[in-house]
Amino acid sequence: MEKISFVIPCYGSEKTIEPVTEEIISVVSQRYEYDYEIIAVNDCSPDNVLGKLRTLARDNKRFKVINFAKNMNRPGAVMAGLNYATGDYVVVMDDDGQCPMENFWKLFEPIEEGHDVSIAAYPERKQSVFKNFGTFVNRKMTEFILDKPKKSQFTNFMIMRSFIVKEIIKYKNPYPYFTGLLLRTTSDIINVEMEERERISGTTTFTFFKMLGLWLNGLTAFSIKPLRFSSLIGVICAIIGFVFGIITVIQKLVRPDISVGWSSTVAIMLFVGGLIMLMLGMIGEYLGRIYISLNDSPQFVVKETINFDDND
After folding, report:
1. Spatial CA neighbour of 121 closest among 159, 78, 152
2. 259 φ/ψ angles, rounded to the nearest 5 degrees
3. Model confidence over 125-138: pLDDT tens digits?
4. Are 33 and 65 in contact (CB under 8 A)?
5. Hey, CA dihedral for 13, 16, 22, 28, is it positive or negative?
6. What's the CA gap between 120 and 107, in Å, rounded?
7. What is residue 312's predicted lDDT score, i.e. its pLDDT?
8. pTM of the predicted structure, to 2 decimals
């Protein structure tokens, strides 16, 4: 019997994790040829979600819990769940009830047909304007930096084969970027259109700083295109400066009485100086992440596990 592993990062989901779990069990029970396990990762949630997870794990041995020692954000929680997953197929989904589980077997069809990864695609996103903006920027960034196909949509509801998971968890650096890890592992990724749900309860925990961290991971994780782009801007600025200098000399030769404007000089200096600081900051970001990676900073720190072995 083949097994399906469900990986659910949990943060602020005290009121939603139980109905999400009940729906998973109800849907998977429709196909008796598949066994299942649910791996819930408590990312140091400030509410009582850990208490809910303990109760669910006590009542169902297929429900397993990973409890973090500190908050590592969603990418770290997903990586932890993938490291502990034992299924032939692994599902990554949210804890807020927005993933349309009623369409699970529709999402599973491409996997049964032999494809590597199947991802839900939502024609209309049921999220805030702020989060829509973050999604748009992240999509455009991955298209430019990671050469993601423009028609592909990466959401938080997906199914992948176990060999994809085994390849992804080989990545041990402290800045996992899940979209990049998928794109560098396989090109056999299928989108399945379906309607996204509204949240069962509460509001998004995707803050501006988490969004900024996601963008930085995308920029620096798997490509040096930003550095090459910086070099290109430097060349363009040098050419502009050279041309401007030639024009200034010619103007002075033609009209010796012409005065050179201090305002334009200062503006150019500020512009070029700003570009230099921006490029140095980008290089510094790469160097800082290399330094932290060399220090073996962990992707996640597990405090305890429940239902993973007889000693839990």
Report:
1. 152
2. -100, 140
3. 656 665 666 666 66
4. no
5. negative
6. 7
7. 46
8. 0.76
In the numeric block, the tokens 């598949």 are attached to 34
Nearest to 41, CA basis, from 73, 71, 9: 9
pLDDT given at position 276: 79
How far apart (Å, rounded) are the C-alpha atoms in residues 41 and 21? 13
Nearest to 144 by CA among 229, 233, 234: 229
| Count of positions (residues) in the chain | 312
Look up residue 252 and give its amino acid. K
Taking the C-alpha atoms of residue 226 and residue 234, their distance in angstroms, rounded to an integer, is 12
Closest listed residue to residue 11, CA positions, set 63, 57, 71: 71
pLDDT for 67-91, tens place per residue?
Answer: 999 988 888 999 999 999 999 999 9
Q: Residue 42 pLDDT more than 90?
A: yes
| Average pLDDT of every residue of the chain | 82
- Buried b / exposed e over 134-168, threshold 16 CB at 10 Å, is bbeebbebbeebbebeeebbbbbbbbbbbebbeeb
pLDDT at 311 > cutoff 50: no
Torsion of CA 94, 97, 100, 102, to 10 degrees: 120
DSSP state of 258: P
3-state secondary structure of 8: strand
Q: How far apart are the first and last CA of the chain?
A: 25
pLDDT digits (tens, 9 = 90+) for 171-229: 988 878 888 889 889 989 999 999 988 877 656 655 556 666 666 665 666 666 676 67
> Using alpha carbons only, how large is the chain's radius of gyration in Å?
25
Strands 117-121 and 158-161: antiparallel
